[in-house]
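Ticket reopened. Same input as before:
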Amino acid sequence: MSKQLLKGNVALAEAAIRAGCEAYFGYPITPQTELLEHMARRMIELNRVFLQAESEVAAINMVYGAAVAGTKVMTSSSSPGISLMQEGFSYIAGSNVPVVVIDVMRGGPGLGNIQPSQSDYNQITKSAGHGDFHPIVLAPATVQEAIDLTVLAFDLAETYRTLVIVAADGAIGQMMEPAELPPMRPKREKRPFWALTGAAGRPKNVITSLYLGADNLEALNNQIQDKLALIQGHEVRYDCYRMEDADSVLVAFGTAARVAQTAVDHLRQEGFPVGLLRPITLWPFPERPLRELAQQVDTLLVVEMNAGQMFHDVKEVVGDQAEVYFTGRTGGAIPTPDEIERVVHGLYNYYLDPDYSPVGVLA
Amino acid sequence: MISEKVVYERPVALSVNRTHYCPGCTHGTAHRLVAETIDELNIRERTILVASVGCSVFAYDYFDVDACEAPHGRAPAMATGIKRVSPDNIVFTYQGDGDLASIGIGEAIHAASRGENITIIFINNAVYGMTGGQMAPTSLIGQKTTSSPLGRDPKLSGTPLHIAELMAGLPGVAYSVRRSLHDARHVIQAKKAIRLAFEAQMQHLGFSLVELLSTCPTNWGVAPGEACDWVREEMIPVYPLGDFKVAEPLRARSQRGGQ
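Engineering reply: fixed in the latest deploy. New output:
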């Protein structure tokens, strides 16, 4: 395999196919539509299942159906569509079936716009539907990483029988970058033992999220919480950049982290000892590395393409160990390296001059 | 020498389980008819039930087949997902009128419109059963329910929705009929329709739906016998029994017209 110039949405779709995706159900929404279009052509070509659903609500329930039948199944959407799919997410969580969802995030609230955004952080890491659960949330910062994390998403979904969301944004979905696709995995021949395949030569399999009686439902919840604890213990992923001797660290994911990385390079050239911590798993959140980091550095600046959603998670983990600030843009605007650098300059000025207020520079 | 012959027994496709249905409710009858059909067609080991939200939510406890439980109204979408990845399985949903005709009308119509090769058993008892007798899209004009205490007013809440007729208008539909469960003769006719609906799927003819006029003595506030009378006297005039769409290969064995 060699590198080729790939559009993010196409790369996400093709990566899913090569990871073994057997069925795809989706509904058109910008900025992820090329993903659905690629699936429409390729899945049929490969004699796999593709279906354009009548709505995101129907799409996620078709996905739920294909999941209970024991196939590797995926859907993709963007923020307003993800809101509609939350009903299905909750049922999928309550019945412990593996599902992969790609969310190419756009600006909200409401119809918002189709510009890149990270406005779904809260809705996918915390409130992905009613009840107590979290999907595994993977946040790529490059087209290559979008490919790698999509493959990983299918493996994690199977391993833990859980919902995995790949949280890209409009920029990752729409831009083209050189990237390498993985080889095509062989088709899986056998359905898992728990799947609905017809009760031939075995007792019937039933998949439900309905548990009447507080004890029964609490037992399910305890089992889900145990699984989540296992995931937290084994699946935290993050990346560190130029952390050597850093006394200030930017914390950012996805496209915001790419911009932050450029800002770090510029700031380093100017002599500011700044590093970058980039969560790759938004859930499970990299709590321990962040907590350890907070003991070594003075200041953390969270950079997001939203009004400060991950900021609250960072703040909660770090507590009083270090100062935590936020800067970001909303509405589909991407912060520039320059904007981030100005905020960092302001923070350093603040430490040099206690009368200097950083409030004005924090967007 | 006395010889014995079994003429009536529990269908194999029904689990040995006590149901939670109220006395006089026809869910039990409908379950039995579906289970008998599954036995007769010898498809139990490849059938998948998609249960819905409503009184029949525990249908998966009563049928001895692989089963799942869909979100409210979404059973046809879930059945679509299953059937598309497992075309050799026989997939059916079992939905009430709140589930199918109200919150799930979109999923039902689009599954039908795609000619999805699934079967829907649609229970129409003119009321929301599980939540306590609220008005359904199928409630009759003037029918008093807990959410239409003065009677259903068409100016406020529209008129009864005719699902079997509605589905019949879609080219993807192979079989769409209405039957009733209020007396033995009609139960036998309902059984024949259910069997044809499953056969439509087995012959890959497309979407099949059997609407069954059913009783809800508890929420109608009447005795079981009176509930059967109410189906005959009040529901059937509004919901005529009959075949609204029968694909050609099934026609020779279908019953045409009313009854």
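Chain A has two domains: 4-234, 240-361. The mean pLDDT of chain A is 95. Please confirm and we'll close it.
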